[in-house]
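tool_call: predict_structure(chain=1)
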Amino acid sequence: MTVQTQLQQAIASAQAVQSSLIQFSLETENEQAKQLFQNLAEQQKNILTLLEGRYHQILQEEPQFFQT
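tool_result:
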């Protein structure tokens, strides 16, 4: 498995986690839990931004990763 593939999978997983957290925040009626899920979703968004940044950095540094 290439680094590109691993990062793509990590990004997809991070997106899934973020989506789940957002969904949990929308579905709960408990305000404390809602805030917790929203905060976690925001943290996950930051993680996702870092992963995507690293992915784009690798694509620029390693032209062979443009091949699929």
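agent: The chain has one domain: 3-58. Proceeding to next step.
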